[in-house]
Each structure stands twice: as structure tokens, then as C-alpha cells.
Protein: NAD-dependent epimerase/dehydratase
Amino acid sequence: MATLVITGATGYIGGDTLATLAANHPDAAADIVLYTADVSNHVGATKAIIAGLVAGHTTEKPGYLLHTRGTGILTWEDSDKNVYGTESEHVHNDWDGVDDLLGLPAHVFHRNVDQLVLDAGTQHAEVLKTALVCPPTIYHTNLPISTRRIKLLSPQQAKDNVRSTNIRASYTY
Structure:
């Protein structure tokens, strides 16, 4: 039976995952790390998680690292050009354009940690399977473990949502 460690269990992704797993698998005892904590730039934590997964797994029983990253990675062109809030013509495609998303410049938000995860998946491919997951917008009613109300992609979305509903909004960059 595979075991799972979840970082960021008080956030949207980690909290809902933990609540669902706890409700459905109370006996669960980590072959899989769902890395959802707000440590996208924490090199030390990332290296420790990778080292633990590599040391504790084999080709027959590999470890898995699912690393969530923020959509801030897609704002680098605005930052470089100093054109915040300007609509971009660039359409990101995580299927046909995956190489563009995996080959972002080194100075992009969270890129240092993303690169650690990607490199680990290449260097230790026999014992470690990795994935980067970048949810564009996270919006829903939280399960009891989570404390936040809403997480929005952009200020414009926040304005649109606040205008159309009675929602307390917070911005995440």
C-alpha cells in the first residue's frame, strides 16, 4: 500500500486533499509527497523532501513528488517589460506548449525550486517520479481544515467576483 505525505495541509489543495483522505482512509500511514505548502521558494525543504524520497525508494517501488506551483510563474513577461495589468496575446498550453512552461527563464518566480524538482526527476528517474502542477485559479468552499475563503488569480478577477457576489477576496501573487 502506498503512503502519502501532504505539505501545506491548511491551504486549499493540501487541506481538501487531507480532509478527503482522512475521511476515506483513516488507517493511512510516504511513497507520495503532495507538495502544496507555500514554500515554492524554499530550497532547503525541497531538497530534504527529494532526498527522503530518493533514499527511501527503489526501482520496484518508486516515490512520487507532485509539486504545486503558483501562476506567478506566468507573470514574468509583465515584470520584465514593466507592463503590469496589460492583457497578453500569449496563450499558455500545458499540453502542446509544455516545453515553454518547463523552460521558463531562471529568474521567474519559483523557478529555482521548480528546477530542483525537474532535475531530481531526471537524475533519479528510476526511483523518483515528479510532476509540476500549476492550478490557474482555485475557488470553492473550503472543507473544515482550510481557513482561507478565496484565492484569485488576478485583481481583475477579484473585482469581477466581488461585484457579482458577496465574497471576501484575497489576492495571491
About this structure: The two ends are 37 Å apart (CA to CA).
